[in-house]
């Protein structure tokens, strides 16, 4: 009996170990699944429901989270959430010691062979078939403690050197975004850019003109390749004039640099929109025309006076000559 009890105890113990091991695998798989799904919601917002699925945020919760979310662009594609969080923690120091989670990535640069369809893009993200080199960069979103912390952290992180080929670009999201519209008086337009151009390439070619504090490359939403043009903003306005004198090349291709034109109808009247008469520019134009007419009348008066004193008969206009000819013909016909 003792042996049987001992044997059954060993079997029960063995079965218990198997059950605990299976439970540990399930818990581990659940944690891995949550990590792979990405931190799309906050820690208190991502709590699973009774069915084990994540609860979707409503509109009010999404707006509240957007106000305390920071955008970080030009992040190296090899960086993980842990590495980015550690970099941001060092950059903030004691100025900000609040939360830096959740973090999720967007605009992942996949290899060209994975960009032909939606299914292949999904498979490429699973296999992490990202582009290599300096052009391989992605965007990140970081949720902070509160909306009042976003401007402080953005100021600390913006224009920090991540590595040799990436300078981070930080900004708010939604209404708190500052770089949504570049100041055209401090910005230039760059055209004829190669598809694999990077922010570091643009900063390098514009360096002789002055310090660049922001770069925006217009990319294809699917392939994440440059569509041929970008915008760069300088710290000082005088740098724009110096940049227009440059004729640089990127990857052996000559690019063009022009001013950023204001296309808004409020600032610049169109063909169908007349300038107000009380506008300072309109007043200057009217005064200039009046001054020219006075000068023209004065010169004509002086010429007539000089012609009379010299005994010359001033010439008549074509209309006057035509009328004289017609009157002479009528007299001759009579």
TrEMBL record:
Statement: the UniProt record of this protein carries the keyword RNA-binding: yes
Location of the region described as Disordered in the Swiss-Prot/TrEMBL record: 1-62, 258-334
Bias (Basic residues) ranges: 285-301, 315-334
Keyword annotations of the record: RNA-binding
InterPro entries documented for this protein: Nucleotide-bd_a/b_plait_sf, RBD_domain_sf, RRM_dom
One term of GO molecular function: RNA binding
Bias kind Basic and acidic residues: ranges: 258-281
RRM domain mapped to chain residues: 186-265
PROSITE patterns: RRM
Keyword Ribosomal protein belongs to the record: no
Biased composition range(s): Low complexity: 37-51
The protein's name: RBM34 protein
């Amino acid at each position: 009996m003792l042996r049987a009890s001992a044997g059954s105890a060993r079997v029960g113990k063995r079965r218990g170990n198997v059950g605990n091991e299976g439970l540990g695998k399930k818990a581990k798989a659940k944690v891995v699944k949550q990590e792979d799904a990405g931190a799309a919601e906050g820690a208190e917002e991502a709590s699973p429901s009774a069915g084990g699925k994540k609860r979707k945020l409503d509109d009010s919760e999404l707006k509240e989270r957007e106000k305390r979310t920071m955008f970080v662009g030009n992040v190296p594609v090899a960086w993980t959430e842990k590495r980015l969080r550690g970099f941001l923690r060092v950059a903030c120091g004691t100025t900000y010691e609040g939360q830096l989670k959740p973090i999720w990535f967007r605009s992942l640069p996949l290899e060209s062979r994975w960009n032909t369809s939606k299914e292949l893009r999904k498979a490429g993200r699973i296999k992490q078939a990202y582009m290599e080199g300096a052009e391989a960069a992605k965007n990140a979103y970081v949720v902070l403690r509160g909306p009042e912390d976003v401007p402080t952290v953005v100021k600390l992180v913006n224009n920090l050197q991540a590595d040799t080929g990436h300078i981070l670009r930080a900004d708010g999201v939604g209404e708190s975004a500052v770089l949504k519209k570049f100041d055209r008086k401090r910005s230039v337009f760059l055209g004829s850019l190669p598809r694999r151009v990077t922010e570091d390439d643009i900063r390098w070619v514009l360096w002789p003109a002055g310090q660049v504090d922001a770069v925006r490359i217009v990319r294809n939403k699917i392939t994440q390749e440059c569509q041929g043009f970008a915008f760069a903003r300088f710290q000082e306005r005088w740098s724009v004039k110096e940049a227009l004198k440059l004729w640089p090349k990127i990857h052996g291709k000559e690019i063009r640099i022009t001013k950023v034109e204001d296309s808004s109808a409020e600032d610049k009247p169109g063909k169908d929109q007349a300038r107000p008469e009380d506008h300072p520019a309109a007043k200057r134009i009217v005064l200039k025309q009046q001054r020219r007419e006075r000068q023209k009348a004065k010169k004509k008066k002086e010429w007539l006076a000089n012609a009379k004193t010299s005994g010359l008969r001033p010439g008549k206009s074509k209309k006057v000559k035509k009328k004289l000819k017609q009157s002479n013909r009528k007299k001759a016909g009579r």
